[in-house]
Amino acid sequence: MPHKLMVDLLGYAASFAVLTTFLMRTMLPLRLIAILSNVLFLAYGYAADINPVFFLHMALLPINTVRLIAFRGRSPSGSPSRMQLTPNAVSLDGIWLAVDILVPGITSH
Fold first, then answer.
1. What number is the average pLDDT over the span 74-82?
2. Which domain holds residue 70?
3. What is the 3-state secondary structure of 31-55?
4. Segment 13-72, tens digit of pLDDT
């Protein structure tokens, strides 16, 4: 199969995975499919040499992974994750994500 066709199929598969996330009604399958779409778009962005797509999904993959871990760490009663905010970071049940590197120019008031 020609390289361009393989890359196009990878892009369509990644796009289909994103579309599928919008059809999910529960959080666990949504996060799992979102992670799959991130991996597919990383491969597509690399193979097609599309840096914005590659770097966007490089940033989204750890976010979706942290959210999945926080969701899976819920109590058996299903109580929601505890979120803590600081001027430069957010924590979901003790898993910290630095937001100042994701959104430059954040200032606290």
1. 54
2. 3-76
3. HHHHHHHHHHHHHHHHHCCCHHHHH
4. 999 999 999 998 888 899 999 999 999 999 999 999 999 999 999 999 999 999 888 887
User: Is 32 part of a structural domain of the chain?
Assistant: yes
Domain count, the chain: 1
User: How many beta carbons lie within 10 A of that of residue 67, not counting itself?
Assistant: 19
Amino acid at 42: L
Q: Is there a domain that residue 95 lies in?
A: no
Per the domain annotation, does 47 fall within a domain? yes
Task: Say if 87 falls within a structural domain.
Answer: no
Give the span between the Cα atoms of 9 and 7, in whole angstroms. 5
Q: What are phi and psi of 93, to 5 degrees?
A: 50, 45
pTM of the complete model beyond 0.90:
no
With b for 16 or more beta-carbon neighbours within 10 A and e for fewer, the 15-26 pattern comes to eebeeebeeeee
